[in-house]
Amino acid sequence: MLLTVALALEYESQCLMAEHRLASGLSESEVHAFVDRLISFAEPVELFFRWRPQLHDPGDELVLEAAINGRATAIVTFNEKDFRQARTSFDIEVLRPGEILRRLKP
Could you give the percent of the chain with pLDDT greater than 90? Predict the structure, then answer.
C-alpha cells in the first residue's frame, strides 16, 4: 500500500467522521490507533509532481497521485468507474478487491 501525507490525512479525516465511527463502533481513540496502524503498514510516497486535477472526486485525486508518484501498477478499489482515467492516461490497472485476492492466491 502506497501512502502520501495528504492521503494519510484524508483517511484519518474520513475515519473520524461521526457516521463512520458509528458504523464501525470505534471510539475516536480507537480510530486514531487504527489509522496509525494502517500508516505503519504503508510504503511512504514522496510527491515529485502534483497530478491534480485528473478526476472528479478530490479524495480520488489523492489516491491517483500516490499511485502515479509511487509507480504503482494497480489501484485496488470498489470505485472502478471513477478511476478510468488511471487506466487510460497512466496505464495503471484498476482492480476490485476480490480480483487482487484471486491474483495473490498461489
Answer: 75
